[in-house]
Amino acid sequence: MEDISNVEVIAPNFKRRLSGVTSTIIQLVPVQRALGQKIATLGPGLPTGLPRIGYCALLRLWGRPRSRSLRVWHARRNVEMLPAIVLRDVLRMKLKIVFTSASQRKHSGWTKFLIRRMDAVIATSNRTAAYLDVPSTTIMHGIDTQRFFPAADKAAAKAALGLPADRKIAGCFGRVRHQKGTDLFVDSMIGLLPQRPDWIAVVAGRATAAHVSFETELKEKVARAGLADRILFVGEHTNIPDWYRALDLFVAPQRWEGFGLTPLEAMATQVPVVATDVGAFSELLVTGQDETGILIAANALTEMAEAAGVFMDDAERARRAGERGLARAREVFSIQGEASRIGAIYEKLLSDTVCG
Questions:
Q1: What CA–CA distance (Å, rounded) separates 163 from 168?
Q2: What is the CATH number of the domain that holds 70?
Q3: Which PANTHER family match (predicted)?
Protein backbone atom coordinates (compact mmCIF):
# COMPACT_ATOMS: atom_id res chain seq x y z
CA MET A 1 0.00 0.00 0.00
CA GLU A 2 1.12 3.52 -0.79
CA ASP A 3 1.54 6.13 1.92
CA ILE A 4 -1.41 8.48 1.26
CA SER A 5 0.74 11.47 2.20
CA ASN A 6 2.79 10.80 -0.94
CA VAL A 7 -0.25 10.34 -3.21
CA GLU A 8 -1.45 13.34 -5.21
CA VAL A 9 -3.78 11.58 -7.66
CA ILE A 10 -6.26 8.79 -6.91
CA ALA A 11 -7.46 6.56 -9.75
CA PRO A 12 -10.49 4.59 -8.48
CA ASN A 13 -11.70 1.40 -10.10
CA PHE A 14 -15.07 0.39 -8.65
CA LYS A 15 -15.84 -2.50 -10.98
CA ARG A 16 -14.57 -6.00 -10.28
CA ARG A 17 -14.89 -7.44 -13.79
CA LEU A 18 -12.32 -6.58 -16.43
CA SER A 19 -13.56 -3.89 -18.79
CA GLY A 20 -12.11 -1.37 -21.20
CA VAL A 21 -11.98 1.22 -18.42
CA THR A 22 -10.16 -1.18 -16.12
CA SER A 23 -7.71 -2.02 -18.90
CA THR A 24 -7.04 1.69 -19.40
CA ILE A 25 -6.16 2.11 -15.73
CA ILE A 26 -3.93 -0.97 -15.75
CA GLN A 27 -1.97 0.30 -18.75
CA LEU A 28 -1.82 3.99 -17.88
CA VAL A 29 -0.90 4.05 -14.20
CA PRO A 30 2.60 2.51 -14.56
CA VAL A 31 3.38 4.97 -17.36
CA GLN A 32 2.06 7.88 -15.29
CA ARG A 33 4.25 6.80 -12.39
CA ALA A 34 7.27 6.57 -14.69
CA LEU A 35 6.60 10.17 -15.73
CA GLY A 36 6.70 11.26 -12.09
CA GLN A 37 2.96 11.52 -11.45
CA LYS A 38 2.25 10.55 -7.84
CA ILE A 39 -0.78 8.41 -8.60
CA ALA A 40 -2.26 5.38 -6.85
CA THR A 41 -5.28 3.20 -7.53
CA LEU A 42 -8.22 2.42 -5.26
CA GLY A 43 -10.63 -0.49 -5.51
CA PRO A 44 -10.90 -4.13 -6.61
CA GLY A 45 -10.16 -5.93 -9.86
CA LEU A 46 -6.66 -4.58 -10.43
CA PRO A 47 -3.28 -6.39 -10.57
CA THR A 48 -1.39 -6.52 -7.30
CA GLY A 49 1.63 -4.81 -8.84
CA LEU A 50 -0.14 -1.48 -9.29
CA PRO A 51 0.40 1.22 -6.64
CA ARG A 52 -2.70 1.39 -4.49
CA ILE A 53 -4.26 2.81 -1.37
CA GLY A 54 -6.86 1.18 0.87
CA TYR A 55 -10.30 2.56 1.71
CA CYS A 56 -9.09 3.49 5.20
CA ALA A 57 -6.73 6.00 3.58
CA LEU A 58 -9.77 8.05 2.53
CA LEU A 59 -10.10 9.21 6.14
CA ARG A 60 -6.88 11.14 5.62
CA LEU A 61 -8.16 13.14 2.66
CA TRP A 62 -9.01 16.03 4.98
CA GLY A 63 -5.25 16.45 5.17
CA ARG A 64 -3.02 17.54 2.33
CA PRO A 65 -0.35 15.58 0.49
CA ARG A 66 3.23 16.51 1.37
CA SER A 67 3.88 19.01 -1.41
CA ARG A 68 0.40 20.06 -2.57
CA SER A 69 -2.62 21.85 -1.18
CA LEU A 70 -5.07 19.21 -2.47
CA ARG A 71 -5.45 15.94 -4.38
CA VAL A 72 -7.04 14.92 -7.68
CA TRP A 73 -9.61 12.12 -7.96
CA HIS A 74 -9.76 10.76 -11.53
CA ALA A 75 -13.15 9.09 -12.13
CA ARG A 76 -14.12 7.18 -15.25
CA ARG A 77 -17.60 5.93 -14.26
CA ASN A 78 -20.70 7.36 -12.55
CA VAL A 79 -20.04 5.13 -9.56
CA GLU A 80 -16.65 6.81 -9.18
CA MET A 81 -17.87 10.38 -9.65
CA LEU A 82 -20.57 10.20 -6.97
CA PRO A 83 -18.37 9.29 -3.96
CA ALA A 84 -15.84 11.92 -4.99
CA ILE A 85 -18.57 14.58 -4.98
CA VAL A 86 -19.61 13.44 -1.50
CA LEU A 87 -16.01 13.54 -0.27
CA ARG A 88 -15.43 17.01 -1.71
CA ASP A 89 -18.76 18.77 -1.25
CA VAL A 90 -20.31 17.08 1.78
CA LEU A 91 -17.26 16.07 3.82
CA ARG A 92 -15.25 19.07 2.56
CA MET A 93 -12.14 17.06 1.79
CA LYS A 94 -9.38 18.69 -0.23
CA LEU A 95 -10.16 17.23 -3.66
CA LYS A 96 -10.52 18.20 -7.29
CA ILE A 97 -12.34 15.76 -9.56
CA VAL A 98 -11.51 14.79 -13.13
CA PHE A 99 -13.87 12.69 -15.21
CA THR A 100 -12.93 10.88 -18.42
CA SER A 101 -15.86 10.22 -20.76
CA ALA A 102 -15.68 7.61 -23.51
CA SER A 103 -19.41 7.40 -24.17
CA GLN A 104 -20.82 8.24 -27.59
CA ARG A 105 -24.48 8.59 -26.78
CA LYS A 106 -26.74 11.08 -25.04
CA HIS A 107 -26.11 11.05 -21.31
CA SER A 108 -28.89 10.46 -18.81
CA GLY A 109 -30.00 13.31 -16.59
CA TRP A 110 -28.21 11.68 -13.67
CA THR A 111 -24.92 11.45 -15.56
CA LYS A 112 -25.23 15.07 -16.71
CA PHE A 113 -25.83 16.09 -13.09
CA LEU A 114 -22.62 14.36 -12.03
CA ILE A 115 -20.54 15.66 -14.94
CA ARG A 116 -21.56 19.25 -14.28
CA ARG A 117 -19.95 18.95 -10.86
CA MET A 118 -16.53 17.95 -12.21
CA ASP A 119 -13.53 20.28 -12.01
CA ALA A 120 -12.24 19.03 -15.37
CA VAL A 121 -13.60 16.70 -18.05
CA ILE A 122 -11.60 14.67 -20.55
CA ALA A 123 -13.16 13.23 -23.72
CA THR A 124 -11.45 10.28 -25.36
CA SER A 125 -12.35 11.47 -28.87
CA ASN A 126 -13.85 14.46 -30.64
CA ARG A 127 -16.98 12.41 -31.28
CA THR A 128 -17.29 11.77 -27.54
CA ALA A 129 -16.78 15.47 -26.79
CA ALA A 130 -19.76 16.31 -29.00
CA TYR A 131 -22.06 14.50 -26.54
CA LEU A 132 -20.89 16.56 -23.56
CA ASP A 133 -22.71 19.67 -22.36
CA VAL A 134 -19.66 21.03 -20.52
CA PRO A 135 -16.22 22.18 -21.69
CA SER A 136 -13.81 19.29 -22.15
CA THR A 137 -10.31 18.44 -23.32
CA THR A 138 -9.92 15.69 -25.90
CA ILE A 139 -7.14 13.26 -25.03
CA MET A 140 -7.25 10.11 -27.12
CA HIS A 141 -6.06 6.79 -25.78
CA GLY A 142 -2.52 5.77 -26.56
CA ILE A 143 -0.81 2.48 -27.28
CA ASP A 144 2.14 0.90 -25.50
CA THR A 145 4.67 0.46 -28.28
CA GLN A 146 6.88 -1.53 -25.92
CA ARG A 147 4.22 -4.27 -26.05
CA PHE A 148 2.78 -3.75 -29.52
CA PHE A 149 5.42 -3.72 -32.24
CA PRO A 150 5.95 -5.42 -35.63
CA ALA A 151 7.22 -8.96 -36.00
CA ALA A 152 10.84 -9.22 -37.07
CA ASP A 153 9.94 -12.47 -38.81
CA LYS A 154 6.25 -12.88 -39.67
CA ALA A 155 6.54 -16.58 -40.51
CA ALA A 156 8.26 -17.29 -37.19
CA ALA A 157 5.58 -15.29 -35.35
CA LYS A 158 2.90 -17.49 -36.89
CA ALA A 159 4.74 -20.73 -36.22
CA ALA A 160 5.29 -19.78 -32.57
CA LEU A 161 1.49 -19.72 -32.12
CA GLY A 162 0.95 -23.02 -33.94
CA LEU A 163 -0.43 -21.23 -37.00
CA PRO A 164 0.61 -22.16 -40.55
CA ALA A 165 3.65 -20.08 -41.45
CA ASP A 166 2.89 -20.27 -45.16
CA ARG A 167 -0.61 -18.75 -44.92
CA LYS A 168 -1.69 -15.15 -44.65
CA ILE A 169 -3.96 -14.42 -41.71
CA ALA A 170 -6.90 -12.07 -41.20
CA GLY A 171 -7.83 -11.49 -37.57
CA CYS A 172 -10.66 -10.17 -35.43
CA PHE A 173 -9.85 -9.74 -31.72
CA GLY A 174 -12.10 -8.88 -28.79
CA ARG A 175 -15.16 -10.16 -26.97
CA VAL A 176 -17.21 -12.57 -29.06
CA ARG A 177 -20.68 -11.04 -29.18
CA HIS A 178 -23.18 -9.37 -31.51
CA GLN A 179 -22.22 -5.82 -30.48
CA LYS A 180 -18.62 -6.52 -31.46
CA GLY A 181 -19.69 -7.70 -34.92
CA THR A 182 -17.94 -11.06 -34.69
CA ASP A 183 -20.64 -12.55 -36.90
CA LEU A 184 -19.94 -9.96 -39.60
CA PHE A 185 -16.27 -10.90 -39.63
CA VAL A 186 -17.09 -14.59 -39.78
CA ASP A 187 -19.63 -14.11 -42.57
CA SER A 188 -17.21 -12.00 -44.59
CA MET A 189 -14.50 -14.65 -44.23
CA ILE A 190 -16.93 -17.39 -45.25
CA GLY A 191 -17.48 -15.42 -48.45
CA LEU A 192 -13.82 -14.53 -49.09
CA LEU A 193 -11.72 -17.54 -48.13
CA PRO A 194 -12.95 -20.14 -50.66
CA GLN A 195 -11.48 -18.01 -53.48
CA ARG A 196 -8.27 -17.27 -51.53
CA PRO A 197 -6.62 -20.56 -50.53
CA ASP A 198 -3.54 -18.78 -49.18
CA TRP A 199 -5.56 -17.04 -46.43
CA ILE A 200 -7.02 -18.18 -43.11
CA ALA A 201 -8.88 -16.24 -40.40
CA VAL A 202 -8.53 -16.09 -36.63
CA VAL A 203 -11.10 -15.01 -34.03
CA ALA A 204 -9.38 -14.32 -30.69
CA GLY A 205 -11.44 -13.45 -27.65
CA ARG A 206 -13.79 -14.81 -25.03
CA ALA A 207 -17.53 -15.29 -25.15
CA THR A 208 -19.00 -14.60 -21.72
CA ALA A 209 -21.80 -16.83 -20.44
CA ALA A 210 -24.53 -14.69 -22.02
CA HIS A 211 -22.90 -14.98 -25.45
CA VAL A 212 -21.76 -18.61 -25.55
CA SER A 213 -24.71 -19.62 -27.73
CA PHE A 214 -23.82 -16.82 -30.15
CA GLU A 215 -20.27 -18.19 -30.44
CA THR A 216 -21.56 -21.75 -30.82
CA GLU A 217 -23.82 -20.73 -33.69
CA LEU A 218 -20.88 -19.06 -35.45
CA LYS A 219 -18.74 -22.18 -35.10
CA GLU A 220 -21.57 -24.29 -36.48
CA LYS A 221 -21.98 -21.92 -39.44
CA VAL A 222 -18.24 -22.17 -40.16
CA ALA A 223 -18.39 -25.95 -39.99
CA ARG A 224 -21.35 -26.06 -42.40
CA ALA A 225 -19.31 -23.94 -44.82
CA GLY A 226 -16.51 -26.49 -44.65
CA LEU A 227 -14.07 -23.92 -43.22
CA ALA A 228 -13.52 -25.16 -39.69
CA ASP A 229 -9.82 -25.61 -40.44
CA ARG A 230 -9.51 -22.10 -41.91
CA ILE A 231 -11.62 -19.91 -39.60
CA LEU A 232 -10.17 -20.58 -36.17
CA PHE A 233 -11.67 -19.66 -32.80
CA VAL A 234 -8.64 -19.54 -30.53
CA GLY A 235 -10.21 -18.13 -27.35
CA GLU A 236 -8.81 -15.49 -25.01
CA HIS A 237 -5.06 -15.03 -24.62
CA THR A 238 -2.88 -12.93 -22.34
CA ASN A 239 -0.17 -12.70 -25.01
CA ILE A 240 -2.41 -10.86 -27.49
CA PRO A 241 0.47 -8.75 -28.94
CA ASP A 242 1.97 -12.01 -30.25
CA TRP A 243 -1.29 -12.72 -32.08
CA TYR A 244 -1.31 -9.29 -33.70
CA ARG A 245 2.25 -9.88 -34.91
CA ALA A 246 1.07 -12.99 -36.75
CA LEU A 247 -1.58 -11.09 -38.74
CA ASP A 248 -1.54 -9.77 -42.30
CA LEU A 249 -4.91 -8.00 -41.96
CA PHE A 250 -6.99 -6.86 -39.03
CA VAL A 251 -10.74 -6.32 -39.14
CA ALA A 252 -12.57 -4.30 -36.46
CA PRO A 253 -16.24 -5.12 -37.24
CA GLN A 254 -17.94 -3.51 -34.23
CA ARG A 255 -21.55 -2.37 -34.47
CA TRP A 256 -20.97 -0.02 -31.51
CA GLU A 257 -17.88 1.00 -29.55
CA GLY A 258 -17.01 3.59 -26.92
CA PHE A 259 -13.46 4.15 -28.13
CA GLY A 260 -11.88 0.92 -29.33
CA LEU A 261 -8.16 0.21 -29.05
CA THR A 262 -7.93 -2.78 -31.37
CA PRO A 263 -7.23 -0.79 -34.59
CA LEU A 264 -4.42 1.04 -32.77
CA GLU A 265 -2.97 -2.24 -31.54
CA ALA A 266 -2.99 -3.55 -35.10
CA MET A 267 -1.45 -0.34 -36.47
CA ALA A 268 1.33 -0.50 -33.87
CA THR A 269 2.18 -4.00 -35.13
CA GLN A 270 2.26 -2.78 -38.76
CA VAL A 271 -0.95 -4.50 -39.80
CA PRO A 272 -3.42 -2.84 -42.22
CA VAL A 273 -6.91 -2.31 -40.82
CA VAL A 274 -10.50 -2.52 -42.00
CA ALA A 275 -12.77 -0.88 -39.42
CA THR A 276 -16.37 0.20 -39.07
CA ASP A 277 -17.16 3.86 -38.50
CA VAL A 278 -17.91 3.59 -34.79
CA GLY A 279 -16.18 4.70 -31.61
CA ALA A 280 -13.02 6.66 -32.35
CA PHE A 281 -12.10 4.56 -35.38
CA SER A 282 -12.56 7.42 -37.85
CA GLU A 283 -10.11 9.48 -35.77
CA LEU A 284 -7.57 6.66 -35.54
CA LEU A 285 -7.41 5.61 -39.17
CA VAL A 286 -6.30 7.65 -42.15
CA THR A 287 -8.11 6.90 -45.39
CA GLY A 288 -7.42 8.13 -48.90
CA GLN A 289 -3.96 9.11 -50.11
CA ASP A 290 -2.02 8.33 -46.91
CA GLU A 291 -4.16 5.33 -46.07
CA THR A 292 -3.55 3.30 -42.93
CA GLY A 293 -6.80 1.39 -43.37
CA ILE A 294 -10.27 1.33 -44.87
CA LEU A 295 -13.26 2.71 -42.99
CA ILE A 296 -16.70 1.24 -43.71
CA ALA A 297 -20.23 1.77 -42.44
CA ALA A 298 -21.28 -0.18 -39.35
CA ASN A 299 -23.27 -3.37 -39.89
CA ALA A 300 -22.39 -3.41 -43.61
CA LEU A 301 -21.39 -6.98 -44.47
CA THR A 302 -20.91 -6.40 -48.20
CA GLU A 303 -18.66 -3.37 -47.59
CA MET A 304 -16.64 -5.33 -45.05
CA ALA A 305 -16.03 -8.22 -47.42
CA GLU A 306 -15.11 -5.85 -50.26
CA ALA A 307 -12.69 -3.85 -48.11
CA ALA A 308 -11.01 -6.96 -46.69
CA GLY A 309 -10.75 -8.35 -50.21
CA VAL A 310 -8.94 -5.21 -51.36
CA PHE A 311 -6.10 -5.77 -48.90
CA MET A 312 -6.09 -9.54 -49.41
CA ASP A 313 -5.64 -9.13 -53.16
CA ASP A 314 -3.21 -6.19 -53.17
CA ALA A 315 -0.15 -7.04 -51.09
CA GLU A 316 1.62 -3.79 -51.96
CA ARG A 317 -1.31 -1.64 -50.85
CA ALA A 318 -1.55 -3.65 -47.64
CA ARG A 319 2.18 -3.24 -47.01
CA ARG A 320 2.05 0.54 -47.48
CA ALA A 321 -1.01 0.86 -45.23
CA GLY A 322 0.72 -1.19 -42.54
CA GLU A 323 3.85 0.97 -42.65
CA ARG A 324 1.85 4.20 -42.45
CA GLY A 325 -0.22 2.79 -39.60
CA LEU A 326 2.91 1.95 -37.64
CA ALA A 327 4.29 5.46 -38.10
CA ARG A 328 0.98 7.04 -37.07
CA ALA A 329 0.63 4.85 -33.98
CA ARG A 330 4.12 5.78 -32.82
CA GLU A 331 3.95 9.48 -33.62
CA VAL A 332 0.39 10.33 -32.59
CA PHE A 333 -0.89 7.64 -30.26
CA SER A 334 1.85 6.69 -27.82
CA ILE A 335 0.65 5.91 -24.32
CA GLN A 336 3.41 8.17 -22.98
CA GLY A 337 1.84 11.08 -24.87
CA GLU A 338 -1.58 10.25 -23.43
CA ALA A 339 -0.18 10.06 -19.89
CA SER A 340 1.68 13.35 -20.34
CA ARG A 341 -1.43 15.19 -21.56
CA ILE A 342 -3.48 13.82 -18.67
CA GLY A 343 -0.68 14.89 -16.34
CA ALA A 344 -1.03 18.45 -17.59
CA ILE A 345 -4.69 18.40 -16.49
CA TYR A 346 -3.67 17.11 -13.07
CA GLU A 347 -0.97 19.75 -12.72
CA LYS A 348 -3.37 22.57 -13.47
CA LEU A 349 -5.77 21.33 -10.78
CA LEU A 350 -3.05 20.54 -8.25
CA SER A 351 -1.68 24.04 -8.60
CA ASP A 352 -5.08 25.54 -7.75
CA THR A 353 -5.15 27.00 -4.25
CA VAL A 354 -8.95 27.02 -4.05
CA CYS A 355 -10.60 23.73 -3.15
CA GLY A 356 -14.20 22.65 -2.64
A1: 10
A2: 3.40.50.2000
A3: COLANIC ACID BIOSYNTHESIS GLYCOSYLTRANSFERASE WCAL-RELATED, GLYCOSYLTRANSFERASE
